[in-house]
Amino acid sequence: MARKNRNPVGKNVDPEAQKKKTRTLTLKSSDGQEFSISESAAVLSIAIENMVEDDCAGGVIPLPLVDGGTLARVITYLNKHAEDGASDEEKRKFDEEFVSGMEMGVLFDVVLAANYLDIRGLLREVRRRIADRMKNKSVEWVRKTFHIESDFTPEEEEQMKKEFAWAWEGVDSDVDD
Amino acid sequence: MEGEITSTATTTTSAAEAVAYTDDVLVEILLFLPAKSIIRFKAVSKHWHSLISTSSFSHLHTLRHRKPQPSFILRAAPSLFFYFNPTRKKFLQFHLNFAHPRILQSCHGLLLLECGSSLSVNRDYYVYNPTTRDSRNLLLEKESLLGLRLAFDPSKSPHYKVICVSSTSYSIHFCEIQVYDSETRTWKRLDKVFTSSDFRKFNDGVYWNSGIYWIASGDQILSFDIENSVLESSPATMITSRGGRSLNMVHLMESSGWMHCVLHKDTLSSLLLVYEYEVKDNVNDWYLKYGVSFDLIAASFGERTYGKISVMGIITGERKEELSLVFHIPGKILVYRFHDGSSEELLDLRLVKFYRERQLQFGYHDAYQFIESLAPV
């Protein structure tokens, strides 16, 4: 550090960044749970960063669209990605494990939270994971999982199945993984 | 919304619905899916169907899924087509809903079709996406057509061009070229006039590196640069000199960004030589990459070729460098992997209705790559 200080350009440790690391924010979930998080981790969410910048934070940031369970997960993600010295490889591995154990319902909660909080890396990871689970599944499985009622007639559905027979080939059984 | 979320169970239900009906969230998830899943999920609901069918979705999807593993469309009889997936070893009938369709070319997910009976003067020409089954009539009225080629590379542009070569009205020895642009939906005639004999084998041409390449009569490879409308020729003696009299097949093929010339010699146990077009010391030329004996491969499966071989294509595996040759001999579809010399039987055709002993079930001009793509036509 001392050596860096002698740098003629004056590339010092950014005092602002240092402050962010020590300053903590409180995030409040829809069900009233409060979580503390370092500002440097919290601002990986573009939405939170904007709130902090606009100074409308006032210590506690209410997140009325995210429940406590989901917020706890999101915070775990943010902390890892704000961690000093975590290599890209380490983060990649963390991301992989972070989403691999989640059920579809949890993935849906997290994708909505990441979308609302604008956390790009997490969004990409969760979207990819949801798509991965859907990839070889049947139309019926998708309807059940997404709570969608079909508005096609059985004849219309049969027609699509016939015309695109190759796309219906090799579909997994509907057992959840 | 706040009030609704009270327990984990309802969160899951409302979250699932929120994802299913929040279009921007849903679209971003669906864009990760391969074209095959997308086509199937069009049947989920009318809402999903319309979301997936927009041209902006197709375009984004095409850009994100650049090199899907190819399957094939095979023609067993004039109006009998099959879908064949070499990875999954699946063989299914494929319905082409056109009157007397003939596939002229497959190019990065789109097919060029000629439709109309051979007796009819009026033929229609279509650009067709076999994945989405969307088609566009090129509205081409030509009696003296010499050749028609499709040029499409979704990594460069979502639009395609069609190059039409036809005799001039005053002499069959000269020809003119019209280029169709899918973006403007118009045909445009080039000012230049060309020599008809140069375009004699234009319909065997492949689209590669912004041009159409074909083997002309003699020892020449001709190429037509589409952007600049320039016809160029380069010697191909390296290839043709190898063949001599025993040469019974020379084909150009494009696969995953490479252009190959496949040469089949009947002598020497049905030898196939594969040349790759590449730049060495600033000179573009053909270099021998692989050699393989069909008879030896067939023998390893207890089969004989009877001198009848149909090369279906050279495809890449999981890794771009790992090329495989997919080919057909009477009764079988086999694959030979150049990188490790292994071969495998992909399909036994002896049980299909159109099987005839010692005969090919489809020829070279009956096998076209089916690349799963949502590319708009």
Instruction: Please give the most extensive interface between any two protein chains, plus how many residues each contributes.
Output: A-B, 49 and 46 residues
Biggest sheet strand order of chain A reads 2-1-3
Number of helices of chain B: 8
Give the biggest beta sheet of chain B. Answer: 4 strands, antiparallel
Radius of gyration of chain B: 23 Å
Family (chain A): Belongs to the SKP1 family.
Pfam families (chain A): Skp1 (PF01466), Skp1_POZ (PF03931)
InterPro entries (chain A): SKP1 (IPR016897), SKP1-like (IPR001232), SKP1-like_dim_sf (IPR036296), SKP1/BTB/POZ_sf (IPR011333), Skp1_comp_dimer (IPR016072), Skp1_comp_POZ (IPR016073)
Keywords (chain A): Ubl conjugation pathway
What does the model show?
The complex is a heterodimer of chains A (177) and B (377). Chain A has two domains: 7-134, Potassium Channel Kv1.1, Chain A; 139-168, no CATH class. Chain A is mostly helical and 177 residues long. Chain A is built from ten helices and three strands. In chain A, strands 2-1-3 form a three-stranded mixed β-sheet. Chain A has helices spanning 2-5, 15-22, 39-42, 46-53, 68-82, 88-100, 104-117, 120-134, 139-146, 154-163, and strands at residues 24-28, 34-38, 60-62. In chain A, strand 1 and strand 2 (34-38) form a beta hairpin. Chain B has three domains: 2-59, no CATH class; 67-95 and 236-369, no CATH class; 97-228, no CATH class. In chain B, 17% of the residues lie in helices and 43% in strands. Chain B has eight helices and 24 strands. Chain B starts with 7 loop residues before the first helix and ends in a 7-residue tail after the last strand. At the A-B interface, helix 7, helix 8, helix 9 and helix 10 of A face helix 1, helix 2, helix 3, helix 4 and strand 3 of B.
